[in-house]
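Support request, please re-run this one:
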Amino acid sequence: MQVGEDGQAIPLPHPINNAKLCVLGLSSGALMRHPARLTAPLVRKGGRLTPCTWEEALDVTAEGFLRIARTRGSSALAVYGSGSLTNEKAYLLGKFARLALKTPHVDYNGRYCMSAAATAQNLAFGLDRGLNRSLADLAHHDLIVLAGSNPAECLPMLMPYLMAAKRAGTRFMVIDPRHTLSANLADLHLPLRPGTDLALANALFRQVPKNKAFIEAHTHGFEEALKAVEGSTLSWAAGVCDLQEDALEQAVALLSQAQNPLILTGRGADQNVRGVRTTLAYINLALALGGSFGTLTGQANGQGGREVGQKNDQLPGYRSIENADDRAAVARVWGVLPGVLPGKGKSAFEILESIAQGEIRGLLVLGSNPAASSPQADRVRTALAQAEHLVVIDPFLSETAALAQVVLPGSLWFEEEGTTTNLEGRVVLRRALQDPPQGARRDWDILIELAHRLGAEAYFRYARIEDVYNELRQATRGAKADYFGITYERLAAGETLFWPCPHPDHPGTPQPFTQGFAHPDGKARFFPTPYSPAAEAPDREFPLILTTGRVLYHYLTGNLTRRISRLSKKCPDPYIEVHPETATRLGLAEGRPCEVQSRRGKARYTVRTSLKIRPDTIFVPFHWEGPSAVNRLTNPALDPACRMPEFKFAAVKLAPAE
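Re-run finished. Output below.
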C-alpha cells in the first residue's frame, strides 16, 4: 500500500493482473444479489427438494453418512472437491474425508484438468508447478510454443504477458486443430488432427538439434527416450497429424533457431488416454533443446487446489499418501497415529463409476458439478440420481445439486477470506468483500459443523479461517510445496511469495530449478514416449472427430456464468463449429439445428460454420448442463497413469435436425 497526502492508504494495482480484469471478472458483481441464489437448505421429501432449517439439513446430512458407514463401511463414502476452492477449503476437505468420514475416496475436478500435466512434471522434474518462473519472465523467451492451449479465451489474464512478449520480439508457434484467437499470435500455426500431439512432439524431438551440454549435465534417460522415437520421422508425423511436411520443417527451424524456447501445454494436448505420455513427449522436446517447459492451469486455484490434500493419492504439500514418512508428518499435525489415515482412494471418475456400481453409497460434493463435467454424462447423471445419500454444497442449484438428497447453500468466492496459488506458485491472499446472504453459510463453516456432527470435533477446532491456514502451513512444512514461511501477515503486507518458502524470513522461490531439478540428484528425466492412437477411431459410421473446450464468456459448466445476463447474452447457447465444406457435404445450414451422435449418446446444437476448424473436426463448448451437455458424448476411457478421461477426442456423426 502507498499513503496519499491525506494520510489515507492507496491500494496498488494487483501484481498479477495490473488492475485489469477479464470479462468474467468484470461481470461477476451480478452474482452478489442474484435472485436464484440459494438462501435455505433443501432436503428431499417425497421426491422433491424442500426448504428446511439448517439444523434439520445438517442432521439429515450427518445421519445419512453415519448410517452408510455403519452398514457398508466408511469406504462406501466419498468426497468430490474442486480446483476453484481456496487452499484452506481444499485442505479442510481432504482432512474432512480422512478424519470425519474416514474414507480414502477423496478427489476433485482437477482430475479432469491438471492430472496429466501434474503427473508428467512430477516424473520428469520431481516437482509439479505450472510455471517454474514468474509471468514477467515470459518476455525473456525468444520462442513460445502453445501446444493445445487457447489462453485468449481460457486464461485471458495471461494474454497481456504473451502480447508483451510478442512486442518484445518473441516468436510463437501454436499447435491446435482450430485457428483460435490465441493463434493470432502465431508465426507458425500447426492445425494438427485432434489426438495426435504425441506423434508431433515425438517427431520434433527426434529431428531438432540437441543441446548435448545441457543434456549431459542436467538430465538422465536421453538415449532411451530417443530410441523410442526412432521411427517418428517428419514424413510419418505429417501423415499421422494430417499436416504438410514443410510445415513440420518450419517448426523444426523455429525450434532450432531459438536460444531460449519455452513450451507451454494446455488441455488440448493432455485430456486424453495418453495425456501423461504426451506431456512427457513435449517435456522431452524442451529438455533436448535445453529450454523450458510449463503447463497452463485451468481453474481459479488450479495450482493450489492440487497441492493441499484433496487428491486421492496426496496429502498437504504434495506429500504422498503412500509414503510412510509423509503420512507420519501429517498425522503429527493432525494429532492422530499414521495408521488412522486411510490409504489411496479412487480417482474422480472412478468414484462416480463406483456409485453407478453400488459400491459407493454416499457422496459429498463441494465446488463441482460432475453431472455435467464428467464424460458419458448421461450415465453419471443416472448414477448420482440413484445414490443413496448425495449431499451438495453450492450457492446455486446446479444440475448435480438438483439430484441431491441434501443441498446446503454455500458461499461465493467474494464472501470468504482465504488464499489461492496461481500457476507461478505465487500465493495470494483474498479478503472477503461481504458476508453470504442470510440463510447461506460459508463453505468452511459448513464443513466444520458437519465434522462435529460426525464425531470428529477434536480435529476441527478453528475460530477463523486463518487458523486453518496456519495448520496447513504446519502440514506442508518440509514438503515439496512448503507454505510454512508464507504467513497471512506477510501476504497482507504486500510481499510477493512463491512456494517453497520454508521459514518466515525466506524470500520464497519464484524459480525452483535454478540450482537443479527436484529429483534427489538434481537432474531431470527423459522418458520413452512411443506413439499410440486415441482410445477410439473414426470409422464409416462415426467419421468425424469431436473436440471440446471453452469460450471467452463462460467458465467450467457455467453454473455461475450462465446466470449473468451480460455473459449469457454474448453466448446464450452451445453451438457446433464445423467447416463449411463439411456442412455442405452433410446438408447442414448456418444457424440451423444439427444432431451430433457418438457411441455414447446424441445431442442437438446450432450450426456455426468456420474456416478456422479442420474439415474432419467439430468443436462444441462444454459450459452447459442437461440435454446440451457435450460430455454426454465424450469418452470415459482413462489415462492409466493419471486417470484423466479422453475429453478431446470422440468419434461422431452429424445430421440435420428438425
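The CA atoms of residues 509 and 616 lie 45 Å apart. The first strand starts at residue 2 and ends at 3.
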